[in-house]
Amino acid sequence: MVDSRRSEQGTALDVDVVIVGAGASGLTAATRLRAAGHSVAVLEARERVGGRLWTETIDGALLELGGQWVSPDQAALIETVEELGLETYSRYREGDSVYANAAGEVTRFTGELFPVDAATQREMERLIDVLDGLTAEIGATEPWAHAKAAELDRISWSEWLTQQTDDVEARDNIALFIAEAMLTKPSHSFSALQAILMAASAGSFSHLVDADYILDKRVAGGLQQVPIKLAERLGDAVHLSAPVRRLAWSGDSVTAYADGITVTARRAVVAVPPNLYSRIAFEPPLPRRQQQMHQHLSLGLVIKVHAVYETPFWRESGLSGTAFSPYQLVHEAYDNTNHGDPRGTLVGFVSDEKADAVFALPAEERKRRILGSLAAYYGPQALEPVVYYESDWASEEWTRGAYAASFDLGGLSRYGAHQRTPVGPIHWSCSDLAAEGYQHVDGAIRIGRATADEIAASLG
């Protein structure tokens, strides 16, 4: 039962559990706790629910500004989508993909591996086999506990690849699948162990290489429908525009002080990315271990580019819309046309240091260069979209990066085992802390469920 009252400071609530953050993880935890018979209050800083899921209409075009894809291994997300009555559809993938090499030469191809010379292809296949073996051996659940963890966590992803092969193009292409495409950080800035965790969280490195697998389906109307519908079921338990400024806690009680609302509870769930923990004043302060650990976690940087055209013109040329190159400004791009929309949409990504460089330019010059990179893949028609939009999550006050937090060199083996350790009545829940489904909505849901079950068991 929720005890609610008014005061000069705003609404005051007494509940069993207060959840900070109305993303997929926080809303999943709230839903599961309520189903177990516990009262909840969800406090969200933004004026909307969804966190890093955001579907918006821009200049008449429906765009997925944040996460959007569903892959076959994401059982928790698939189950939630079905339970909420949402429909999915397959990403368009008929026709040839394109690859641009270091010389700017564009080649059409089919299948998973890029069209490189035979020696480079053999090296890529060998590296994928090595990484699949390490991924299976180390796993996603406790990579820090493996005998090789410290060794692999002290060497950067780029240096590990350099030790494996002298083939520069093979290294660049393999690096792409983790650095630019997933962690959105330069490959010298995170460890080989962090790269292996990224692959293990998706089932294998081979899954990351296979775009048709990892980017399989989309949700009709946008993936933000998941948190929206979860929030609708929670009703007035969800409070928007209520950033939590302070968490005062003791052994078995916690009070959240947010704008316009104060919530006292037996447990709290902090369901925001780790880079935002410091936005909350903890009283008393968090233990030394957590204080140090949180300083070694950071989000990457990526621009998600949306370009909408009168028609999906690339299909007329027999192209699927899928494009890759570690040498282009836009390192990957896909046909992102909405189900039933006669117009065509391309989505492309510019990450890490390349994003730094173009963010230093005036907006029109940045747009010109990004569209020029798309035109390298698809031809001059790509230069003239009817709608153009850049999702810049690093400038979002309550996100500050994309797609997820990862450790710096040595951080995963040093701190990984403690990421989800509760502090008194305070629990942690977000996709950044997931094993399977790490940095994806699937991971957010998995962690939300696990956190709720842990709290429900402790409350009795």
Automatic annotation (TrEMBL):
The record lists the membrane-crossing segments as: none
Binding positions (FAD): 25, 44-45, 244
Q: Which UniProt keywords apply?
A: Oxidoreductase
Q: Which cofactors is this protein said to need?
A: FAD
Which GO molecular function entries does the Swiss-Prot or TrEMBL record give?
oxidoreductase activity
- Stored PANTHER family: AMINE OXIDASE (PTHR43563), AMINE OXIDASE [FLAVIN-CONTAINING] B (PTHR43563:SF1)
The protein's name: FAD-dependent oxidoreductase
Q: Which organism is it from?
A: Labedella populi
